[in-house]
Amino acid sequence: MRILAIETSCDETSIAVVSLTNGVFAIEKNITSSQAKIHAQYGGVVPEVAAREHAAWIIPLLQEVDVAHDGAGIDAVAVTAGPGLVPALRVGVELAKSLAWAWDKPLVAVNHLEGHIYSVWLSEFQAPSGACDRPEGRLKPMFPALCLLVSGGHTELILMRDHGQYELLGMTRDDAAGEAFDKVAKLLGLPYPGGPQISKVALEGDAQAIAFPRPMIDSDNVDFSFAGLKTAVRVYLDSVSPLSKGELRGVAVANVAASFQQAVVDTLVAKTMRAVQQTQPASVILSGGVSANLRLRQALSDAIQSRFSGVSSDGDEAPVKLFVPDLSLTGDNAAMIGVAGLMKAARGEFVDPLSLKADPNLRLA
Ligand code: KG4
Ligand code: ZN
Question: Is 31 in the pocket of ligand 1 (CB under 6 A)?
């Protein structure tokens, strides 16, 4: 089965063709046009500007993926229907509806967060010999899977009991983790998007230099809160005298970035491990834009390894496996929407092409 997938929920316009053959996904095309540089001058994404850019790029991208004009060879169309920015979502949704109607193909509405989760089904993770359950050497997540979804708009812990079955365990009560990275980057004079900038600058800094709070780390739940951490960074910067503020451009910026990043990573990892303890999953899935953060990947991997070392039956394999997307698939892209769309299509979960509407608050669970 081959699906044409469209993603326009935020500031990346993306179209992909993804196939599913004998249980194996393949990305045939995945073309993304990023607007990040345009939004950088405003310090964040401006919804109307995003919509205008999507409208300008979507048809050139459709031409570039080069599907037949009558849709021959495509079995279904998938599109991100939410959550996201309504003016941005609408561009993709209206194109998908038009194509599905004109080609007379089934239409699948995909939740953007579900797309991020399914990005790990495209991962090139190499299974240790003998542990492989897929012909080409990839290992797929086993259920129940605990998903830590960290993006610019969401920070959620979701228990996935099976394909398409989600239970929301915890979420942020204010800012998302990516949003905190973006806001702190702004305080430090670093450009949007802030996550990649902070993680780069942090390489030169000392993560123990400043004792920023680990919000809600000891609370008896798996919710998050990052607004107070952002305020703590602002208070710290305000407390630095004007004289030494000049030095913030140098070593101090790296220390603030590294210490802030460590506070976010420690919190995300602690809450995820609490959820692991509560739900005893077979796999952990880390996904969303912030999953590109190498410090977070390493810390979560270390925490899982150390929790399970010595308790497995064969001695050296952790009973819980961590799945992360390839770095090229951590940010918004249509390939992940294609994978989620193929899974929904296989279950016959189609929507009416004439009545689908973008939903900025679409929920997964
Ligand atoms: O999933 P995504 O591309 O878009 C949304 O669905 O929101 O996530 C974007 C977020 C931004 O806040 C960006 O700063 C953050 O992911 N991000 C990172 C890194 N790369 C992107 N945050 C921390 N470290 C990174 N390396
Ligand atoms: Zn996203």
Answer: no
Tell me how far the alpha carbon of residue 292 lies from the centroid of ligand 2, in angstroms: 12
Q: Are residues 332 and 290 in the same domain?
A: no
Report d(CA 212, CA 287) in Å as an integer.
25
Atom of ligand 1 nearest to the CA of 154: 7
Q: Which residues contact 56 (CB under 8 A, 6 or more apart)?
A: none
Rounded distance from Cα 168 to ligand 2 centre (Å): 17
Which of the two residues, 145 and 243, has the higher pLDDT score?
145
Mean pLDDT of all residues belonging to the chain: 92
**pLDDT tens-place string over residues 117-158:** 999 999 754 444 333 344 445 678 999 999 999 999 999 999
355 belongs to a structural domain: no
Q: Is the pLDDT of residue 309 over 80?
A: no
Nearest CA to ligand 1 atom 10: 152
325 lines ligand 1 (CB under 6 A): no
> Best substitution site from 116, 154, 181 to test ligand 1's pocket, by max atoms within 8 Å of Cβ?
181
Q: In total, how many domains does the chain have?
A: 2
In this predicted model, what pLDDT tens digit does every residue of 189-209 receive, in sequence order?
999 999 999 999 999 999 999
Can you give the residue range of the structural domain that contains 17? 2-121+328-346
> What atom in ligand 1 is closest to the CA of residue 178?
12
Q: What is the CATH number of the domain that holds 236?
A: 3.30.420.40
Both 216 and 97 in a single domain? no
- Does the CB atom of residue 82 touch ligand 1 within 6 A? no
Whether 184 has a pLDDT exceeding 50, the answer reads: yes
**pLDDT band, very low/low/confident/very high, at 259 (cuts 50, 70, 90):** very high
